[in-house]
Structures
1.
Amino acid sequence: MIFRQFFHHESSTYSYLIADNQTKEAALIDPVKDDTDKYLQILKDLSLKLIYALDTHTHADHITALGPLRDATGCKTVIGEGAAAGCASQYVKDEEVIKVGSLDIKALKTPGHTIESYCYLMSDRIFTGDTLLIRGCGRTDFQNGDSEDLYKSLQRLMTLDKTITVYPAHDYKGWTSSSIGEEANNNPRLQFKTMEEFVDFMNNLNLPNPKMMDIAIPANLQCGNN
C-alpha cells in the first residue's frame, strides 16, 4: 500500500492518500482545497489514478477539495449519509465498504461532532476525522453536534483492536498519529466514568467558533466549488 499524510498549516488539518500498489487506484481522505495542486502533483509523480475523494464530515475550519478534485480527475466524491451537502457522488452508510484496488475502507458512522460524521477503517488503521483526536475529541456545539452521540461513538471506537493506528483530521500540538490503545489509556476525554460526566464537560467548553466557519460550511455544502 502507498500511504502519505499531508498537513495544512493554516487549519492544522491532516489529509491522507491511500493507494493500491498493483492497480495504482487511489483515495484521498479529508483533502483541503488550498492543497489541490499538491495532491494532483503526487498523483502524477506516483502514476496514481484517484478514484475516490472522501470527507469524514462537513468541515467548519477549511474548504474541502472534493469538488476541485472531481473536476480535475473524474473521481467520485464521498461523504456520510445524512450530510446536508447535495453535491457528493456517493453517500456512504454505516459499515459500507469502499474498495480501492485490493484495499478495503469500511465506513463507520460516528455522529456527535456533527450529525453526519464518519470514520474510515482499514485493517490496521482508522481515519477518525474530528470524532477522535489525539488526546482529545471534536466539539459538539454546532452543526447538529450532540455530546451523547459523541460519547457513544467514542465508545464504539474503543471496541476496535487496540493496535489499530489512529489518524485524525486535525492536530494542534504536532502529533501525527496514535493508536486505539494509546488513546484508551491516555485521552482525557475517554476517562470519564459516565456519559453524564462527559456530556456535562463537553457542554461547558465555551469555545469560540472556528474563524472560517461562516465561509467554510457554505462552501463545503457545495463540495468546495464555491
2.
Amino acid sequence: MDKTEMKIKKELIDSSAMSRAITRIAHEILEKNKGTEDLVLIGIRTRGVPLAERLAARIEEIEGQKLPTGILDITLYRDDLSTVAQQPIVHRTEIPFDITGKKVVLVDDVLYTGRTVRAALDALIDLGRPLQIQLAIMIDRGHRELPIRADFVGKNLPTSKTEVVDVNLKEIDGKDAVLLLEKT
C-alpha cells in the first residue's frame, strides 16, 4: 500500500514512549546476555539501523561498554524482490567485525509477516556463524507467515491487515513517533 493514500488513524507511540522502550529493550538485552561479552548489534536497513545505534548508545550509558554495531542490507535476499522494483536499489552491508562466535542482536522497526527477518537471517549466515541470533523489534504487529518471533519487543500491537504501522525516527523522518495509518 502506498502511504500517500493513507491517513493517520492514531499516534501509538510518541518520542518519550519510544525512548522508554529503547531503555527497556537495552536492559532486557543485557539481562538475557548477562552483560556485553561477545554481544553485537546489527540494524536491518533502513529503520533498524538508527534503532540499533540508539540501543548501543543506551547500553554504553548503562554498562560503560561500547558495542560493535553494523548495518545489514537484505535487498538481494528478499523473496519478493521481483515485486519490489524493476531495478531494486542495493545498499552496502557494513559489518566491520567478524560475527562468528558472537551473540548477534538483529534490530528492526516492525515485525509483520517475518519475511524481512528470514531474509536477514540468510544474509547473516552468509557472513559467518554466530553463536546465537536474537531479534529486537520496536513494534510487533502480528500476522506472521513464517515461524519467527522477537526476543525483545518495544510494543505488541494487534492490527488488521489493511492498516499500516509507520515508524518515524528522528534520524530519517525528523521526529520520533509510531503511527497507525489506514486507507483513505
